[in-house]
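Question (not urgent): is this output format expected?
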Amino acid sequence: MNDPEGPHLLSVTAVLDRAAEHLATQYVGVFAPESVTATVHESYDLLAANAAIRQHLPNLAVHFAADRLAAAAKLHGAGDNPRPEVLFVCVHNAGRSQMAAALLEHRSGGQIRVRSAGSAPTGALAPVVIQAMAELGLNLTGAYPKPLTDEVVRAADAVVTMGCGDACPIYPGKRYLDWTLPDPEGQDLDAVRAIRDQIDTLVTGLLAELTPAHA
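Got this back:
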């Protein structure tokens, strides 16, 4: 783990190690404790590379690692959730993909496992995106940009890209969709509302395809 906050290195390491011990108990027989610990520390490094605010970084890294381990467990046949999984990918994971993930999770009522990631994630969500989603009663204040990792792509039943080019790995037999949408970065609230509503329409259509009984 590389952490430029020298004086806090030991405390961060201790937090990550304790969290890894706890996560390892959930994956006995699936992942070795050493592998869980490596995933937790790697997740911290990945987030730290672009973090704008570091105060809660260890906790975010643990959350990120837990999600990555859940995806990897599914690939090992150890997942216990039959829900379809959808991954939304944009460049910064600070606007479009975050809105799409929140909208699909909300519209599906928990029927879909939703993730989002960025090909080049930035440090924080755009405030105007948080504001536009709050108008629908969806709270994104706790959301954070995450880098794209291999296991979440492989675990997804559908991967929806939004302007991230060829950054997303392609696996045979997996469903890929590309949604052409404006980038909300630098846009005013009215423009972001319009993007949000475009995404909501696309999400509603995708939900109807994935869960016909829901429509």
